[in-house]
Design goal:
Length: 114
């Protein structure tokens, strides 16, 4: 596994893929801001970054898994995406800029309970 096996998604490209109905599953692996936040990216599944090894195998098959976190350089999302790839998930990626970049770009969010 190499860094280049993980696709890097710009927020604008991700919004366009949502609109086209591409098979993408967002995965929220935020650490610091999860508890305080009342929102997430639409359709995101929450995976606790401290328990990801037990939760990632339950994520849906047949979609590209796009992980996002709240750490500089996408540190947490990249670590988990690399692990998922090593466990046999062929299509994984990270959101460039993570949660903060998504929100700062004024991209759509929904309540966490949606």
């Amino acid at each position: 596994m190499a860094w280049d096996d993980v696709s890097r998604w710009q927020p604008g490209d991700l919004v366009a893929s949502f609109k086209m109905g591409d098979p993408i599953q967002m995965v929220d692996v935020r650490e610091f801001t999860w508890r305080e936040s009342d929102s997430k990216i639409r359709g995101a599944i929450r995976v606790d970054p401290m328990e990801f090894e037990s939760q990632v195998p339950d994520l849906p098959d047949g979609k590209q898994l796009i992980f996002y976190c709240d750490r500089d350089g996408e540190a947490t999302s990249t670590k988990i995406a690399l692990w998922a790839f090593d466990q046999g998930r062929p299509r994984v990626g990270v959101l460039v800029g993570g949660w903060n970049g998504w929100v700062e770009g004024d991209n759509p969010v929904v309540p966490k309970d949606e």
